[in-house]
Design goal:
13-stranded mixed β-sheet; BioF2-like_GNAT_dom; transferase activity; alpha+beta; globular; disordered N terminus; 25% strand; Aminopeptidase; 38% helix
């Protein structure tokens, strides 16, 4: 594997050029593990609009001249509460899955390339902190195998389960099987009461000409609620809004945008944005009119989403991207995906290897001590 002729790419300004992004697209089409957040549409938009002020680098792994892996990383000055620098996969505020894009069949080779470049990079201090991986995914399996082979330290530092939708059942059958009868009855009553207020229309985005308006409506709807009040809505920051629009445009053009809305008399009262990759999809953001909270519009659009996903034979599963123990989506989706974080030792030579070894040992030691103090070990 020739690494010398393919150096790590720092992001500057507009990031990688269009030719480089075309190679990413080819890679994404043959990915061993789907990740809509690192697919070219979302990653390109993030680089263009969210990378400013962050030391983001794009590590590419090659087999000869064939690109087999892409891992966006960022240097961190701290690791949690510890004043220890490290390198982490780039998980910006709107990224909810962190598996690198690796060509199917080249999983171990790609990780070998990633780690070799990090070992050799003078800027890569401490260790590699990986967030947002699927514990049962291709990346986790390949990484574990390689760490055993190279006698490289690997520590799982956190895991949690989040809701996902993966079923061969029809939407109606799934609804009957996994949602309590009392809850189904209550939601039918809310749908009927909402319809008494005016014309209710549920739609899935299909026309490119409608995309700009749908983006405007989503940003306005999200900003109208608690996220707007707390300053965390996408529309509160120009860079976040620009990222959202750019990602939606690129994903729509690539056939990977899945966007739904519920209108009341022509006005959006609930919207949901999903991004597809491979046979899967990732639920990105939801927004609803909180003034109509008594009708549970957020739950109603999730019901519409269930039908849209289960009625689409090209979508095999959807990751909720929700926090652990989310009260709403956990009550609707029965399947779970285990998300893990790893701390991976970096090697090298001379003082760099000593510094990295010490950082890895200190982080592990502090964590073990904290567990003992809490009575967990």
């Amino acid at each position: 594997m020739d690494m010398a002729s393919h150096p790590t790419l720092p992001t500057t300004g507009s990031g990688a050029d269009q030719g480089q992004r075309a190679h990413w697209l080819s890679l994404a089409l043959e990915a061993a593990e789907a990740n809509g957040f690192y697919a070219p549409d979302m990653l390109g938009a993030a680089i263009d609009h969210l990378a400013a002020g962050q030391d983001v680098r794009l590590i590419e792994a090659y087999d000869g001249d064939r690109l087999i892996g892409l891992l966006p990383v960022v240097r961190k000055t701290r690791h949690g509460r510890l004043p220890i620098g490290c390198v982490g996969n780039w998980m910006h505020d709107h990224c909810f899955f962190g598996a690198p894009i690796i060509r199917q069949g080249d999983e171990i080779a790609a990780w070998r390339g990633f780690l070799a470049q990090l070992d050799a990079a003078p800027w890569a201090g401490g260790f590699l902190h990986l967030e947002g991986l699927d514990a049962a995914g291709a990346n986790a399996a390949a990484l574990e195998a390689l760490c055993v082979e190279q006698r490289r330290g690997r520590v799982e530092i956190h895991r949690y389960d989040r809701a996902m939708l993966r079923s061969e059942l029809s939407a109606d059958a799934y609804w009957e099987a996994h949602v309590r009868s009392k809850k189904r009855k209550e939601l039918r009553r809310l749908q009927k009461r909402l319809a008494e207020l005016g014309a209710v229309d549920t739609r899935l985005l299909s026309a490119r000409d409608d995309l700009a308006l749908w983006c405007d409506d989503f940003l306005a709807l999200e900003a109208s609620g608690w996220k707007g009040q707390e300053g965390t809505a996408l529309g509160c920051k120009p860079a976040d809004a620009a990222f959202f629009r750019a990602a939606c445009v690129a994903a729509f053009d690539a056939g990977r945008l899945h966007m739904l809305r519920i209108d009341l008399d022509g006005r959006a009262i609930a919207m949901l944005v999903n991004f597809r990759h491979g046979e899967g999809a990732f639920s990105f953001k939801i927004a609803f009119d909180e003034a109509l909270g008594r009708f549970s519009p957020g739950v109603l659009i999730e019901i519409a989403n269930l039908h849209a996903v289960q009625d689409d034979p090209t979508i095999g599963w959807m990751d909720s991207c929700a926090a652990a123990d989310h009260p709403m989506i956990d009550s609707l989706w029965a399947e779970r995906r285990t998300i893990v974080q790893y701390r991976i030792a970096l090697h090298g030579s001379g003082m760099a290897r000593m510094q990295r070894s010490a950082a890895f040992a200190i982080a592990n030691g502090v964590e073990a001590l904290a567990r003992r103090l809490k009575g967990q070990a």
